[in-house]
Design goal:
single chain, alpha/beta, 434 Repressor (Amino-terminal Domain), Endonuclease, Chain A, six-stranded mixed sheet
Length: 297
């Protein structure tokens, strides 16, 4: 059963140790925030540290890692002397520089480039909001639906079974974190009619949606108002920040961290949420589509 957004744990902060991928994001986000709090430019930091400007830019963009000694030097420049904060950032450096990512998820090698990064953030997120105008969101898909969708959303050289295995594994990780993550899925009504894998597969998939209490359907009568919004997931990691994963029609997954782009996606998500039907109406729309797809349901 999917985690229920309506009943989050009293302490919604995820106490799990972040994976190396998430630790790298947390580290560069914290360092950039500390620099901005000191009202220093990247050029000023580079000059004070006697580094190249490109090194500061690459550290903050995640293009390169940061060593413990470099991190400590930056904290001196940023006037950070709180021992707890220094120790926390040091721990993030150690996790970020480890090589444990693939030991956490056994994602099939053929689809790692597509799903691995998003899987790591799903494991650490405390809030996940998904807007789905094209297909049922990965975290709600049945294995059969995921396999049937694979050749439609990804290049033909991706094995459908590998895609389905990755999707199911990510769902299992999310289920383990029930109570520590809040979810919401906004699905356009047209998706409910889109045959993937045949009538029986779609009917079973719609039945799965009825088991997920945080699904909201955007009725077709109003969906045109947010038709331009892509398929994307907004993820918040505790009080550390928010980022997004945008899915392209070519199967690509783009990570979005830029404030301006995040604001645009948050605005699209807010509008979609306002247009979405309530839980009762959403369930009724799903049942109608399920009955039309397979009268035996």
């Amino acid at each position: 059963m999917m985690p229920d957004r309506r009943h989050p744990a009293q302490d919604a902060t995820d106490v799990e140790e972040p994976t190396p991928a998430v630790a790298r994001w947390l580290l560069r986000t914290r360092l950039r925030r500390l620099r901005e709090q000191r009202m220093l430019t990247q050029e000023q930091v580079a000059e004070e540290m006697e580094w190249s400007l490109s090194k500061v830019i690459r550290i903050e963009s995640g293009a390169i890692g940061v060593s413990v000694s470099d991190m400590r030097a930056l904290l001196v420049a940023y006037l950070v002397d709180d021992h707890a904060q220094v120790d926390e950032l040091r721990q993030l450096v150690l996790i970020a520089r480890s090589r444990q990512d693939r030991r956490i998820f056994q994602i099939p090698p053929s689809v790692r480039a597509v799903f691995e990064q998003v899987a790591h953030f799903e494991r650490s997120a405390t809030v996940i909001d998904v807007h789905a105008p094209t297909w049922i969101p990965d975290l709600l898909q049945t294995r059969e639906y995921a396999a049937g969708l694979a050749p439609l959303r990804l290049a033909s050289h991706f094995a459908a079974d590998d895609v389905a295995t990755s999707v199911v594994q990510r769902q299992e990780w999310l289920a383990r974190r029930a109570g520590r993550v809040q979810t919401r899925f906004l699905i356009q009504e047209a998706v409910l009619h889109r045959q993937v894998g045949g009538a029986s597969v779609l009917a079973a998939q719609l039945g799965r949606l009825l088991e997920a209490p945080t699904v909201r359907v955007i009725p077709g009568t109003v969906a045109a108002r947010c038709v331009a919004a892509p398929t994307f997931a907004m993820m918040t990691v505790g009080d550390h920040g928010t980022l997004a994963f945008v899915h392209g029609f070519d199967g690509s997954v783009q990570i979005v961290e830029e404030p301006e782009r995040l604001t645009q996606l948050q605005s699209a998500l807010s509008e979609a949420g306002q247009l979405a039907a309530d839980a009762t109406t959403s369930a009724r729309l799903i049942r109608v589509c399920q009955a039309a797809t397979d009268p035996r349901c």
